[in-house]
Amino acid sequence: MPGQQNYIAPYLMRTAHLQTIYPTLFRRVNGVIWQRQRIDTPDGDFIDLDWLVRGNRRLLLLCHGLEGSSDTHYMKGMARACASAGWDVVAFNYRGCSGEANRLAKNYHSGSTDDLAWAIKHSLATQRYQKLALTGFSLGGNLVLKYLGEDRDDRPAELCGGMAISPPCDLSACSDQLGQPQNRIYQIRFLKTLLAKVAAKKDLIEIELGSLTAKRCRSIREFDQAFVAPLNGFASAEDYYRRASARQFLPTISHPTLVLSSFDDPFLAESCYPSDRDINNPVVRFLYTQRGGHVSFIQRHPQGWYWGEQQTVEFLESIGT
């Protein structure tokens, strides 16, 4: 497939599940101390932005994955790498993901690009930055791609491009993929924290949806059907997946964009690996590797960078000068 590169996984990290799980449990990223900024949203909620400011004129905005935050290892790893390469960094924590329940019944979802646009607007309000780039991981990658390709007139002039790492750009197929027996450990982990957030806002959510007593969710699809869809104006989980999946927006992206994924990613379905021929958009580049797991790409590096971070720094240098 076009775009394959020669990423070589360390010998002991050649299985997809080990690549995916090891960094979550064991990676520690030092030297990233966030400064928090809380911004109110137009609908009465709030978003927390975490900043790593070094006085640069270029800004990278990071979007985390499902149930992640600015404290996730890949967010800190990317911030450390890109800050050393001349970028200030702001991490966008989605509603309910910054360690405190948000004010409304609804939380974030894979297509909430209006929240991303609001975070971008406030990040550029200081007028310090001449360039803005976006990088999203997993769900955040889908979010970035959708934002770049959808029909909207509020993208700022400073925007120079974006990158998506392991994006589930076909949400319906990826929901089914997570439901496979070999991925049960991931689905259980996600559901545990998602359902805990529902329990923490039970009274708010019951005002919108009625009693939660009978709602039982044994899969991400069931959770999206029970909570994400009705709380965010979608008719069903499938309607949500159809409208929020980023693959349909790839042909209309007009800023330089890099999509980085591994063929052995346990979260991604086959439809999440479009080719140049499928999309027919010269500004979108696909970089696929044989190994790497989900949002991982472990490598030995003198500065502790993972391979995806190294690729991002190189890509940003090509678009941010």
Describe the structure.
This protein has 321 residues and is an alpha/beta fold. It has a single domain (11-171, 247-319), classed as 3-Layer(aba) Sandwich (Rossmann fold). The protein has helices at 16-26, 73-84, 113-123, 139-149, 171-178, 184-200, 202-209, 220-231, 237-244, 276-279, 307-319; strands spanning 35-40, 46-52, 58-63, 88-93, 131-137, 159-165, 257-262, 284-289. An eight-stranded mixed β-sheet has the order 1-2-4-3-5-6-7-8, sandwiched between helices. Helix 8 crosses helix 9 (237-244). The longest helix has 17 residues, at 184-200. The model has no long low-confidence stretch (mean pLDDT 95).
List the helices and strands and how they pair.
Layout: H1 16-26, E1 35-40, E2 46-52, E3 58-63, H2 73-84, E4 88-93, H3 113-123, E5 131-137, H4 139-149, E6 159-165, H5 171-178, H6 184-200, H7 202-209, H8 220-231, H9 237-244, E7 257-262, H10 276-279, E8 284-289, H11 307-319
Parallel strand pairs: 3-4, 3-5, 5-6, 6-7, 7-8
Antiparallel strand pairs: 1-2, 2-4
- Note the run of SSEs as H and E: HEEEHEHEHEHHHHHEHEH
CATH superfamily: Alpha/Beta hydrolase fold, catalytic domain
Q: Which fold name fills CATH's third level, the topology?
A: Rossmann fold
Q: Strand share of the residues?
A: 15-25%
Specify the helix fraction band: 25-40%
CATH architecture field: 3-Layer(aba) Sandwich
Count of alpha and pi helical runs: 11
Span between N and C termini?
30 Å
The overall pLDDT average reads 95
Q: What can be said about the biggest beta sheet?
A: 8 strands, mixed
Structure classification: alpha/beta
- Spatial arrangement of strands, main beta sheet: 1-2-4-3-5-6-7-8
Uncertain residue segments: none
Tally of structural domains: 1
Q: What's the alpha carbon Rg, rounded to whole Å?
A: 19 Å
CA-based shape: globular
The top-level CATH class is Alpha Beta
Count of β-strands? 8
